[in-house]
Amino acid sequence: MIRVSSKSVFIPVTALLLCAAGPAAADSFAIGAKAGTTGLGIEGTWRLTDSVNLRGGYYAFDYGTELEETDVEYDGDLRLRNAALFADWHVFGGRFRLSGGAIHTGNEFLGSADGELEVGQSVYFAELDARVEWSTLAPYLGIGVGNAVRGGRWSFSFDLGVMYTGSPSVRLDGTVDDPTLQAQFEEDLERERADLAEELSDVKYYPVLSIGFAYRF
Prior knowledge:
With 217 residues, the chain is α+β, with helices and mostly antiparallel strands. It has two helices and eleven strands, in the order αββββββββββαβ. It has a single domain (6-216), classed as Porin, CATH 2.40.160.170.
């Protein structure tokens, strides 16, 4: 699976948003901050027509969480890395909008578990490392309130939508205290991975809820 680091996406997106402010000023350009379920980030908005805007941004955040499958609980971090491009249609020419676009994600869960663990069909004293990754390109549909390039210099926005990430991929690595059990452990570890992947197979849709503010140039 292709991985995208925060620096590789953040630097060019930030440069694009900041550099665009100069030449786009006469055509209505706004830059702002966003906070939501995709992370904390920045957004740039360009007016294309009287009713359609183009909006792009980058959002990132890490937070601790747990992932449990049957009798194994993985403690770790959910890492959010999302670069997005949206088209906003202000249906009635006001603040309400319908939005569609795509989000390039680098979202993943990294966790671990250790001690006496039930892995597959057996119990081991072992250490496990888990990595769960989602699709790198997710279509997005949503609704929102706010038009950063119309009205006053400052504006407030609210977005509610969903992105389709598909079923995540799961990777498990582990070691067992007793080397004589290694062969059986590896078989059970694959069963554990398959069980965790099956449990997460329905996690295909990620809710997007965010609020923000912007300044129009």
